[in-house]
Design goal:
Strand content: 5-15%
Number of helices: 10
Order of helices and strands: HHHHHHHHHEEEEEEEEEEEEEEEH
Number of strands: 15
Helix content: 40-55%
Largest sheet: 6 strands, mixed
Shape: globular
Distance between the termini: 65 Å
Strand order of the largest sheet: 3-6-9-12-14-15
């Protein structure tokens, strides 16, 4: 009975807090509708969304449930996530931008609740944000553990030292590799099987620097400590070995400039077609 009262109180808190958080407000409304439309998912949706008072608490729960294992129980991971969100509000601000980005750019995403519950690209990025926080705090073995579990669970391998901006969409999140010294700017869209990697055994700054608004097509490999300029496009299957100027489209193996980006914000329009003369 006491547990039931606590659950009701938490659900009331979720509704109250959603009034001042538009992203969370929308997720809560969508969750309530989803339970009504598909009662068989009621347990999942209540435990993942409606039981929690904030998006931060829901994210901590979802990450812990996805990454928990006999080596580290869900409760411990949840406490780590809660600590990270409490210590650095920017982590959850970035998560809200990521949810909005996925909804706006992925035609398969029709509701804000989908990335939180179902999209492993979004979930992997949120787990990485916690791992990066741990890395910055000097808790590197724990950061490596989260990296390992994300790789095992989602087939997405992001070094905890990598710096990832906000408003990130990983579409069809599978086979993504992002190296230790890589930097990814804001509002970047990355499709499946993309590698931001090094070119050898060098131990210094050795990974790409991706500018804001870049669109990286499926299977593209960007290798070495090179800069990809803001609002550029990398065509699917390309191997980029040299700097890409802003607002250009590159394609090929090795990649070369084949034209302009074609629009102001390719990562948002998601236009991957190489038009004649573009």
């Amino acid at each position: 009975m006491a547990q039931q009262r606590e659950t009701i109180a938490n659900m009331d808190a979720a509704k109250m807090d959603s009034k001042v958080d538009p992203v969370w407000h929308r997720i809560v409304l969508e969750a309530e509708r989803a339970v009504h439309e598909e009662p068989l998912l009621g347990g999942l949706i209540h435990s993942s969304v409606l039981y929690h008072g904030t998006l931060e608490r829901a994210l901590a729960y979802r990450i812990s449930m996805k990454l928990g294992s006999p080596e580290m129980q869900e409760q411990l991971l949840r406490e780590i996530c809660d600590e990270a969100y409490s210590s650095d509000p920017e982590i959850a601000i970035a998560a809200r931008a990521d949810i909005t980005a996925v909804h706006d750019r992925d035609p398969a995403c029709h509701r804000f609740i989908q990335p939180l519950l179902f999209f492993k690209g979004f979930q992997a990025i949120q787990a990485h944000r916690v791992a990066h926080w741990l890395w910055q705090k000097g808790r590197r073995d724990l950061a490596y553990f989260i990296q390992m579990r994300v790789s095992e669970k989602f087939a997405i391998d992001i070094h905890p030292a990598a710096k990832i901006g906000k408003g990130i969409m990983i579409d069809h999140g599978h086979g993504i590799v992002i190296g230790e010294t890589a930097v990814v700017g804001d509002n970047v869209s990355i499709l499946h099987s993309v590698t931001l990697g090094g070119t050898g055994k060098e131990d210094e700054d050795r990974h790409p620097k991706i500018g804001d608004g870049v669109l990286i097509g499926a299977g593209a490999k960007v290798l070495g400590n090179i800069k990809v300029g803001c609002n550029s496009r990398i065509a699917s299957g390309s191997v980029v070995l040299s700097e890409v100027p802003p607002c250009k489209t590159v394609a090929g193996v090795p990649a070369r400039i084949v034209g302009e980006a074609g629009c102001d914000q390719p990562s948002i329009t998601m236009d991957q077609i190489l038009k004649s003369g573009a």
